[in-house]
Design goal:
- It is a single chain.
- The chain is an alpha+beta fold.
- It is 17% helix and 22% strand.
- It is built from 2 helices and 6 strands, in the order H-E-H-E-E-E-E-E.
- The two termini are 17 Å apart.
Length: 115
């Protein structure tokens, strides 16, 4: 499902898409969900292109989690403005309308309470 649908899926359950802040968080996600491509809550508003990607909680997606040469350069309306966690454990920018799986986390407990 696309990013907006994935986030809505989580919100309907009182949760949000995962927001890994460390390698340890990535390991917890992959231990629970396997090494597959999933959406994170990372995004970049059109007006903020060129600035760091942020999670929905407005914290910056850590540089240490990005795949090499990512995020890419902004290129207008159809640029890669949403962030996925790849099967390799690295975050990369993707088109928000592309397909991926949602993994939700409890907003109050973060990575320690994945569902």
């Amino acid at each position: 499902m696309p990013w907006v649908e994935a986030q809505t899926f989580c919100e309907d359950r009182g949760q949000t898409l995962v927001a890994p802040k460390s390698i340890q968080d990535v390991d917890k996600i992959q231990d629970k969900c396997g090494k597959q491509e999933i959406w994170t809550s990372g995004y970049q508003y059109l007006a903020e292109q060129g600035k760091p990607f942020k999670y929905l909680d407005r914290t910056v997606v850590p540089k240490t989690l990005w795949k090499n040469n990512k995020p890419g350069k902004a290129s207008g309306f159809r640029s890669e403005d949403c962030a996925k966690l790849g099967s390799n454990g690295k975050v990369y920018d993707a088109k928000c309308w592309s397909e991926s799986l949602p993994v939700c986390q409890d907003q109050a407990y973060g990575q320690n309470h994945l569902v």
